[in-house]
Design a protein that fits this description.
ten-stranded mixed sheet, binds pyridoxal-5'-phosphate
């Protein structure tokens, strides 16, 4: 596939503050391509970062056909960068698209396009410890129509954002509110797709939880409001007796996280037992109170591991490990980030290094991807 690369007239130098935060700064360029039934995916281009021109009748604004992803490129020495399991994200992008009635992308082409974009924008890969270049691919429905049916045309774009570490020098446990009144997703719905509607419906509840001193919301299953599902943008796990990591099985309404999958694979190699099954929230409360649950943590691309210090449910609080980060969360965080940042060899084949230093940044030429 050929990618047209438009020149930049006034590129901003890659300068960003020490405190990068998450998704506040964006690089100079973006990748775009369009889909129509006649031409399939076409017009693959890397263009200056810019606002999208959307017809007010665009399908996305009325029916919300949209899927997205979140991946990180990690800095490497010697003019290289590295992806972590980007193939799993590309597969999930297509699974989400299928569920939302949208066309598939060619995963290899998608990854090559991201690589080409990063090669041009490599100066924006932050080098502070714990930081990375966050990659946000999106596909959305563009056909101007108010009919409730699949759009015929789509836009696929990728933007890049240098992001800082989720935690500063030490992991700080987060307080998590367990929602009884509201649910995120139901089996058979769209919960296992990464689509915007799942997040839109959660915002009001998360804001309410924040007003009550919590940082995130843990969702229960939508039918019985009894089984633990996942946290806002992360999967959840509990540590039993300091050695057994237990996470809810993928139920059809939980997003299958790449971090979750990696931890399930990594755990046994660190001497931990791992299991996936249904976790009854009442049993979970009893296990916290009896001390059988020694830690709880959320897992996702952004923070990698976020320990939970306290759950709030109705009017009661359940404190875990004295609101301190536990040894299992710490070890898993270190083991996974050591692989992601290339501090140790990757025995799993999860990382994919690519050269970034040999690009011709202002190139107007057609690049092969
Ligand atoms: C709802 C939800 N659950 C879980 C995750 C964790 O997934 P991953 O580990 O692939 O980032 C995310 C983040 O993408 C998410 O949005």
């Amino acid at each position: 596939m050929q990618i047209r690369i438009e020149p930049l007239s006034n590129p901003r130098p890659a300068e960003f503050p020490q405190e990068l935060g998450f998704g506040r700064y964006f690089t100079n360029r973006m990748f775009t391509q369009r889909y129509s039934p006649e031409d399939g995916w076409h017009d693959a281009s890397i263009v200056p970062y810019q606002a999208l021109a959307l017809d007010p009748a665009s399908h996305i604004l009325h029916c919300g056909q949209d899927v997205f992803e979140g991946i990180k490129a990690y800095p490497r020495p010697h003019s290289q960068a590295s992806f972590f399991r980007i193939d799993r994200n590309a597969e999930r992008f297509n699974r989400s698209a299928r569920r939302m009635g949208m066309p598939a992308i060619d995963p290899d082409m998608h990854i090559e396009a991201i690589e080409t974009l990063i090669r041009l924008e490599h100066e924006w890969i932050p080098s502070q410890p714990g930081s990375a270049l966050y990659i946000r691919p999106v596909m959305l429905a563009t056909e101007p129509t108010l009919e409730v049916r699949a759009s015929r045309t789509f836009l696929h774009f990728v933007i890049l954002s240098p992001v800082g570490p989720y935690f500063g020098s030490a992991m700080t446990p987060v307080p998590v509110f367990i929602s009884h009144d509201y649910v995120r997703a139901v089996r058979g719905g769209t919960g296992e797709a990464k689509t915007i509607a799942n997040y839109a419906g959660s915002i009001f509840v998360t804001e309410e939880a924040r007003a009550r001193g919590f940082q995130q919301v843990l969702w229960l299953d939508a039918v019985e409001r009894r089984y633990v599902e996942e946290v806002g943008g992360m999967n959840i796990a509990f540590v039993y007796d300091g050695k057994h990591v237990r996470t809810p099985a993928l139920s059809g309404s939980i997003l299958p996280g790449v971090t979750r999958e990696s931890i399930l694979q990594l755990g046994p190699d660190l001497g931990l037992e791992v299991s996936e099954d249904r976790i009854d929230v009442r049993e979970m409360f009893a296990d916290i109170e009896s001390g059988r649950i020694t830690e709880a943590f959320a897992m996702g691309t952004g923070a990698v591991i976020a320990p939970v210090g306290r759950f709030g449910y109705k009017e009661k609080n359940y404190v875990i490990n004295d609101n301190e980060t536990g040894p299992v969360a710490q070890r898993l965080f270190e083991a996974l980030t050591d692989i992601q940042y290339g501090r140790v060899a990757d025995p799993y084949g999860w990382t994919r290094n690519f050269a970034v230093g040999d690009n011709n940044a202002g190139a107007q030429k057609v690049a092969r991807a």
